[in-house]
Amino acid sequence: MTIESVSVNVTSPGRNFVTLKIVTTDGVVGWGDATLNGRELSVASYLQDHVASTLVGRDENRIEDTWQYLYRGPYWRRGPVTMAAIAAVDMALWDIKAKKAGMPLYELLGGASREGLRVYAHASGTDYAALKDAVTGYVEQGYTAVRVQTGVPGLGQIYGVSSNTGGKYDYEPAKRAADGRAAIAPSEETWDTPAYLAHMPGVFASLREDFGSGLRILHDAHHRMSPIEAAQFAKDVEPYKLFWLEDCTPVEDQTALRLVRQHSTTPLAIGEVLNSVYDYQTLITERLIDYVRSSVTHTGGVTGLKKLLDFAGIYGIRSGMHGPTDVSPVGMAAALHLGLAIHNFGIQEYMPHSETTLGVFRTSYAFDRGFLHPGDAPGLGVDLDEDAASAFEYTKAYLPVNRLMDGTVHDW
Ligand code: EZ4
Ligand code: CO
Questions:
Q1: Active site residue 298
Q2: Phi, psi angles (nearest 5°) of residue 100
Q3: Model pTM?
Q4: Set 143, 159, 196, 280: catalytic member
Q5: How far from chain centre, in Å, is Cα 282?
Q6: How many beta carbons lie within 10 A of that of residue 316, not counting itself?
Q7: 230-249 pLDDT, tens per residue?
Q8: Considering only CA atoms, which residue is closest to atom 10 of ligand 1?
Q9: Residue nearest to atom 5 of ligand 1 (CA)
Q10: Domains in the chain and their CATH numbers?
Q11: 248 to each of 152, 253, 259, how far by Cα in Å?
Q12: Which of 82, 184, 311, 402 could be a cystine partner for 412, CB 3.0 to 4.6 Å?
């Protein structure tokens, strides 16, 4: 059998998603996630205009060969757009292979290495009372790990902090216009690292007082610190035993983490914006990180991320796959199958999709008391309802831009 058709679906059930559909000559359908938050149409075009026709007539069983064909073939390689496009093709081909085998994908990847995947939730609040409420809510649902983000006195809205205090963390990071229509440009936020450095250790101290030592506490610094600031921060928060500190410095500067490592034992996670094993070469071989944050969707699919995680495993580094709502349910399912199968699984990020999104993507993964399982449906276990999807037109949305108090554009 061969690949008969390849098409790209762009839909916006609450937020934008790009999904690849591959159909074989014997009628098997495979789905792949190609969503790149805020830059969605570039990946849709890469797939539709440059990749789709080259796949028709190919043997759908040759997953590694197709991966190499798309990675090496076009000469231009790596980068988020290319690697998200390759990921979508790769996921769809694995979905097809597993459906044909009549097995959930994790069985083809070696079978389950654990009963379920420990996940962490996103808790946030503009002040400590709101943050505590949010964490309490997750603990009551059985979560054993929570990422905490909070407002900083003197600063306004901060990316990653929900403004509906005490409520569920359910923001759409890439913002549409206030009336729900297409945005024209990103919103802008203000940042001040000294204020953050002064405030955060006390937040972790309060969390430990209120929730004890058992709760796994994670924090995302979103690339905002310089190397020496990150070293100070990681050292200051050491007593609170974070599960990890994420993206403490701008991620493309791999050797920045040497300085952080020299000064603290706070575990480090990095890489949601990285897309290939080569982006991690120094980070892994010098053991500068503890967790790999890459998602299946942005790292060349199951094939691409498995190469990276196998390499990381040799150095005792574990997975911490990116799982925000801008990874579609298809991408989330791929992460769960891979995470269940590999030995060096660490933890899985889990931001549940909205009801609107789940009305379009039918999933078979299940959450139970702090753990996720991909389910046992053949393939990835997710279907896109194309009729339902067609009701939600693409709506341009942007991630925000960050500036320092004096107006300088800053990392975020
Ligand atoms: O900012 O996925 O750890 N998770 C994160 C996410 C990212 C968004 C960007 O599209 O940092 O919320
Ligand atoms: Co992050």
A1: no
A2: -65, -35
A3: 0.97
A4: 159
A5: 21
A6: 10
A7: 999 999 999 999 999 999 99
A8: 37
A9: 324
A10: 3-105 (3.30.390.10), 108-376 (3.20.20.120)
A11: 17, 11, 12
A12: 402
